[in-house]
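Lab meeting, action items carried over

1. Structure of the two-component assembly. Owner: GW. Status: complete.
Input record:
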Amino acid sequence: KAGVTQTPRYLIKTRGQQVTLSCSPISGHRSVSWYQQTPGQGLQFLFEYFSETQRNKGNFPGRFSGRQFSNSRSEMNVSTLELGDSALYLCASSYEVTDTQYFGPGTRLTVL
Amino acid sequence: AQSVSQHNHHVILSEAASLELGCNYSYGGTVNLFWYVQYPGQHLQLLLKYFSGDPLVKGIKGFEAEFIKSKFSFNLRKPSVQWSDTAEYFCAVGYQKVTFGTGTKLQVIP
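Predicted assembly:
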């Protein structure tokens, strides 16, 4: 069974731009969670989607948004990028959010 | 609000030494507990998890953890570490929203 895939793997943007990251979960998984990983803050929960609905949200500003499609693929969008948004963005999928989450390789976003 | 505390930020051990990484959590409801590992250049992988039942949980690669409800702890242990255990270890807790600790970097010296 293929693992969680994330595209692109690396991204460089400038302040003020917006970015869209994509996540394809493991086949059959309906829950997709997004995390931001930085050296200073560690892994922080962004949001979780299940059957195209956002069910849980972390403490991030409204510039961070996401969506999930009917095939469970998910995208997250960050608008008006700031330098502090530079991070590794991880996607994790599971059958249900209460089950074991399987992580993708992440998208490394650098904001200049 | 749920929180996870990992007290050891960086641990250095010689091969064959025993390992114990501390994890304490604060959570008010049904608790699922996890330990994840991130080897250099690799994805986060699940080492072990506790949902219910036997509080002593065995995971992959010889790791185990004990859930002690009265102490709100879920410490990770391994009797004898190997150089290949060099990685960053994350404790996590949650039910619908998972909170991760800040991680412990383990360096095993041959």
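2. GW to write a short summary for the group page. Key points so far: Residues 31 and 98 of chain A are 9 Å apart (CA to CA). Chain A is about 0% helix and 55% strand.
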